[in-house]
Structure formats: structure tokens, C-alpha cells
């Protein structure tokens, strides 16, 4: 919901950092991998109830998640394909989205490992994540097949369908969980419900666009 509004604020500093990294040999895929590694450490911290350490690592991981795309757009091309103007690639986009969904679900799984009394609500939240993720990716597949384009959230490797619960909202909720772990059931119910509304809305959108 807020991704499109936050994008102009986020892009400027990320692009500035990306330009400083140009020519250093650091590739977007390296940054994606490093961000995912930070996410795994964050998950481990949550499993051991090191909530504030997890919070810092989650934020650092998401900065890397934004930086990899900025570096891809600003760095000199290293592609095998003639005519490439940057390091943006379909493979990089694939790595990015796989890492994102493993990160989001992994954080909730780790929280449940550290606090098994909340395992049922954690399972519910992961179920809701599957709904938003599958409705998002399924729409993107059909949109690509029909040559649709949508750059409102910034230039992406595939079509980004909006909703109530997008990346910004999910990151905010993960931070809330780290800050207020005793509120996890309430947070999971509210955010899970919003995820289900988003999923249903995307299904209706697909019905309108593809039906």
C-alpha cells in the first residue's frame, strides 16, 4: 500500500550508494546473497529470543534488498547478452524474489521456534503470506504473458501488483514483532487478515483483467 509512496524517498539514497559501488566489482547478486545471509542470521537471533539483534539485522537485510536493484540499474553491464545497458537481469530478479519470500516466512518460522507457544499463530501468518505471495506471482506470470508493464513501484524484473500488504507493511510488522514479541498473536491476527483481504482483492483484480 505504501511502497509506491516510499519509493521516491528510498531510491535517491540507494542510487547514491549504488553509484559509489560502481566499478568495485560488487554485483547485484552478491548484494542479494549478502542480504539473504543477514536475514538468516536475523532468523537465528529470533529463535534464541535475541529480538533487538534480530531487528537490526532485519533492517540491514532489507536495505540490501533495495540496494541490489539500485546497483543493477546503475552499474556497468556484465551481461553476456549484446546491447545490455546495466546489470539488470532476469536471473537477478529471480534470485531476489526467492530470497524475499524465504526471508519473510523464515523470520516467522524462527519466531515460532523461539516461542513455541505462538506456533499456531505463526503457522496462520505463514499461510497468509502464501496467499499474498502466490496471488502476486501468479498475476505477474500472466501479466508477463500479456506484455503488461507497471513501473509505479520503480522498475522491476516483473509486474508488481499492489495491495494492502506489500513489502513496506510486511517489514514494519516484522519490526513490530521484534519490538513487542508478547503482542505476536494480536499482530498475526490483524496482519494476517489484511493479507487475506489483499489476496482476495488480487483474485478479483485478476478476474477483471484476465477473465
Alpha plus pi helix count: 7
Helix content: over 70%
The mean pLDDT is: 85
**Could you give the distance between the termini?**
25 Å
Strand content: under 5%
- Please tell me what the overall shape is: globular
Rounded to an integer in angstroms, the radius of gyration calculated over CA atoms is: 18 Å
Number of domains: 1
The poorly predicted ranges are: 79-85, 152-159
Derived structural class: mainly alpha
According to CATH, the fold-level topology is: Four Helix Bundle (Hemerythrin (Met), subunit A)
Q: CATH class, please?
A: Mainly Alpha
Please trace the helix and strand order, writing H or E for each element: HHHHHHH
- Count of distinct strands: 0
Question: Mind describing the biggest β-sheet?
Answer: none
User: Considering the protein shown, what is the CATH homologous superfamily?
Assistant: CDP-alcohol phosphotransferase transmembrane (TM) domain
User: Under the CATH scheme, which architecture would be assigned?
Assistant: Up-down Bundle
GO molecular function, one term: transferase activity
Pfam family, one: CDP-OH_P_transf
Protein name: CDP-alcohol phosphatidyltransferase family protein
Transmembrane segments: 94-113, 119-142, 158-180, 186-204
Provide an overview of this structure.
- With about 210 residues, the protein is mostly helical.
- It has one domain (about 5-210): CDP-alcohol phosphotransferase transmembrane (TM) domain (Four Helix Bundle (Hemerythrin (Met), subunit A), Up-down Bundle).
- It has 7 helices and no strands.
- It has helices at about 5-20, 30-45, 50-75, 90-115, 120-145, 165-180, 185-210.
- α2 (about 30-45) packs parallel to α4 (about 90-115), α4 (about 90-115) runs antiparallel to α5 (about 120-145) and α5 (about 120-145) runs parallel beside α7 (about 185-210).
- The longest helix is centred in the middle third of the chain and has 27 residues, at about 120-145.
- The chain is globular and about 50 Å long.
- The model is unreliable at about 80-85 and about 150-160 (pLDDT under 50).
Amino acid at each position: 500500500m505504501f511502497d509506491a509512496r516510499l519509493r521516491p524517498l528510498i531510491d535517491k539514497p540507494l542510487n547514491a550508494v549504488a553509484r559509489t559501488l560502481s566499478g568495485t566489482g560488487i554485483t547485484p547478486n552478491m548484494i542479494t546473497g549478502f542480504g539473504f545471509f543477514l536475514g538468516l542470521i536475523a532468523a537465528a537471533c529470533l529463535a534464541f529470543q535475541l529480538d533487538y539483534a534480530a531487528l537490526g539485522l532485519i533492517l540491514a537485510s532489507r536495505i540490501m534488498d533495495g540496494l541490489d536493484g539500485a546497483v543493477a540499474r546503475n552499474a556497468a553491464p556484465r551481461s553476456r547478452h549484446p546491447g545490455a545497458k546495466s546489470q539488470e537481469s532476469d536471473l537477478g530478479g529471480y534470485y531476489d524474489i526467492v530470497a524475499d519470500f524465504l526471508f519473510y516466512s523464515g523470520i516467522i518460522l524462527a519466531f515460532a521456534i523461539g516461542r513455541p507457544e505462538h506456533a499456531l499463530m505463526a503457522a496462520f501468518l505463514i499461510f497468509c503470506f502464501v496467499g499474498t505471495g502466490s496471488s502476486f506471482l501468479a498475476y505477474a506470470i500472466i501479466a508477463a504473458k500479456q506484455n503488461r508493464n507497471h513501473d509505479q513501484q520503480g522498475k522491476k524484473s516483473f509486474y508488481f501488483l499492489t495491495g494492502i500488504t506489500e513489502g513496506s507493511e510486511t517489514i514494519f510488522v516484522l519490526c513490530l514483532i521484534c519490538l513487542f514479541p508478547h503482542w505476536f498473536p494480536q499482530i498475526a491476527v490483524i496482519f494476517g487478515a489484511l493479507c487475506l483481504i489483499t489476496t482476495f482483492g488480487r483474485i478479483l483484480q485478476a478476474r477483471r483483467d484476465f477473465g
